[in-house]
Design brief:
This protein is 45% helix and 13% strand. By secondary structure, it is α/β, with parallel strands linked by helices. The protein folds into two domains: 118 residues, Reverse transcriptase/Diguanylate cyclase domain (Alpha-Beta Plaits, 2-Layer Sandwich), CATH 3.30.70.270; 215 residues, no CATH class. It has a five-stranded mixed β-sheet, with helices on both faces. The protein has a two-stranded antiparallel sheet with strand order 6-7.
Length: 362
């Protein structure tokens, strides 16, 4: 029989197998079994689930993992190494075998409340660019971090509220001047609204001062971003120093005032509103456009999970657009692993210098 793991051991192994799947690009399936009772039936529920565990542990492969996903409440089974197999079909096949094994031991009325659910990693929808929320079941480590850093997260949110409120008040004259300049130099709205993907894949409306002519085609940026992420950006997207950049350096869609705003990052100021309402933070990874996610490798997606998107971050103070995409993601992941309120303060203090230097800004 497969060794049965405790909740702590099982969740640790789930995280390890998920990261292994990122590297190998082979799917894994997580199956959860819950008898659907609990409450006043908890004691009987525990005994029933332990019997179910005994039956199923004898039926799964030696390379699969079994344990408590939630102690004495929900059973978990991890099936690995699916390669290019159709995981939806694999889930249906496994479910059929599991039900067949259980029916050999239990009566129909005993199984009537039993609930079996499957979670695939990577989710086939993760790379479709639709910004669908990520299922947190596969990321118990992120929930643990949130519990451990609860006080720090409250501090971070307080900093966001205070910082964004002060910024919106103090910079209101700048908002007015830029709004007038935008209206005088091109037709269209003052603000540019765009669908972006936030933490856990939750979409939100991202605000900027409009720096482009209205009704511009996004294909030029989409094609460039896909090439850049794949490491195939051409010489047309290089600076005079022959460095690859994350933005188009000679984008014909940008207005004259828009070029100035982008160079000085003034177009980003409306995002203080996104911070105020809780969609973004002052410090964190930049929120991607849905079509960017289409080109992501599996490990790139973690930047959407481990931290709330921000106005500034390690990427911005380390060269901004002149870094490669992989370097940017590594900086984002490093930030999420080492994050603290003190680190946020350090990044915020270094941001003005990065902005005024203009390095990597286009």
């Amino acid at each position: 029989m497969t060794h049965f793991l405790s909740e702590e051991q099982f969740r640790r192994m789930l995280c390890r197998e998920r990261k292994r799947s990122e590297r190998s690009r082979k799917h894994l399936l997580l199956m959860l079994v819950d008898d659907g009772k609990g409450g006043v039936y908890q004691r009987k529920s525990d005994a029933f689930l332990k019997q179910v565990a005994t039956v199923l542990c004898s039926a799964i492969r030696e390379t699969d993992l079994a344990g408590w996903f939630e102690a004495d409440s929900v059973l978990g089974f991890i099936f690995t190494e699916f390669g290019d197999s159709d995981v939806s079909m694999a889930a249906r096949t496994i479910e059929s075998k599991v039900v067949a094994e259980l029916r050999k031991v239990f009566k129909a009325n005993q199984l009537s409340h039993c609930q079996i659910s499957f979670y695939a990693f990577p989710d086939e929808r993760d790379g479709d660019g639709q910004g669908r929320p990520v299922d947190s079941v596969l990321y118990p480590d992120l929930l643990e971090v949130e519990k451990k850093k609860k006080v720090s997260l409250v501090t971070k949110r307080t900093m966001d509220l205070v910082g964004s409120t002060i910024a919106l008040i103090v910079l209101s004259p700048v908002f007015l001047i830029l709004a007038i300049a935008i209206k005088l130099t091109s037709k269209g709205p003052v603000f540019f609204r765009q669908r972006r993907v936030g933490q856990y894949g939750v979409p939100f409306t991202f605000l900027k001062f409009r720096s482009m002519f209205v009704s511009t085609d996004t294909d030029i940026h989409k094609q460039y971003v896909h090439s850049f992420i794949a490491g195939r950006a051409g010489l047309s997207s290089r600076t005079d120093e022959n460095k690859l950049v994350y933005k188009l350096t000679n984008d014909p869609r940008i207005t004259p005032i828009g070029r100035f705003m982008r160079r000085t990052s003034l177009d980003e100021l409306p995002q203080f509103w996104n911070v105020l309402v809780g969609e973004m933070s002052l410090v964190g990874p930049r929120p991607p456009i849905p079509y960017e996610i289409e080109a992501y490798d599996i490990w790139h997606r973690r930047r959407l999970l481990e931290a709330k998107p921000g106005i500034t971050g390690l990427w911005q103070i380390h060269g901004r657009s002149s870094t490669t995409f992989d370097e940017m993601v590594r900086l984002d992941l490093h930030y999420s692993r080492t994050w603290s309120p003190l680190l946020d303060v350090k990044i915020l203090l270094k941001t003005p210098r990065a902005v005024f230097s203009g390095e990597g800004a286009y």
